[in-house]
Design goal:
The chain has one domain. It is 72% helix and 0% strand. It contains eight helices and no strands. It starts with 8 loop residues before the first helix and ends in an 11-residue tail after the last helix.
Length: 189
């Protein structure tokens, strides 16, 4: 009598290739991050400003400035309390640090494209409202890691910031960018 349930080792045989692929992907990610992380401190040390670049120089908006302040603290944390050898092998720790690095790239790309597409300052500031919250969320996550040192935890607390709230800006973005699209698209039957 056949049943739809696999017994014992059959599950392992079926899942082994999938787990093997994941394990290999995690190992490759860890090796990449381990090679990358030590050079980040040297890269930031060589720069006098936050690793934001010229894209940030073109904008003087409250949440863009706040995001730059968060990045300055992140940079300082990498210099003053760099990840230890054990932390460089802790994939969970590295993934959270990597998320913060990814936010730097996303922010720079958002600003570069904002100029290309001539986005209103309200829209740009609203985008950075989200980025400020995201960076704060990753700082909280990093603070809670078991391998985070007390000095690193102190820097994480400094990165936790609330975005500059502007209800008028939010309303303008909602009216001009969201409601303006009402009825512009039609669902396929």
């Amino acid at each position: 009598m056949k049943t739809g349930v696999m017994m014992g080792g059959q599950w392992l045989k079926k899942l082994a290739p999938e787990h093997s692929k994941r394990r290999d992907a995690l190992r490759r990610t860890r090796r990449t991050v381990e090679r990358f992380l030590p050079s980040v401190g040297r890269l930031f040390a060589a720069r006098r400003s936050v690793p934001a670049g010229p894209a940030f120089d073109a904008y003087d908006l409250p949440n863009v400035n706040l995001f730059e302040e968060q990045l300055a603290v992140f940079k300082e944390s990498l210099m003053a309390a760099p990840p230890s050898e054990a932390q460089r092998k802790d994939l969970d720790f590295l993934m959270t640090v990597g998320e913060i690095f990814a936010l730097v790239v996303y922010a720079a790309l958002a600003l570069e494209n904002a100029r290309i597409y001539a986005l209103e300052d309200d829209v740009v500031d609203q985008i950075f409202d989200v980025l400020v919250r995201d960076l704060a969320r990753f700082a909280v996550e990093l603070h809670g890691k078991t391998s985070t040192t007390p000095e690193q935890m102190a820097y994480c607390l400094k990165m936790i910031r609330k975005p500059v709230v502007d209800e008028a800006r939010y309303g303008r973005v909602w009216e001009r960018q969201v409601y303006a699209l009402a009825g512009a698209y039609e669902m396929n039957p």
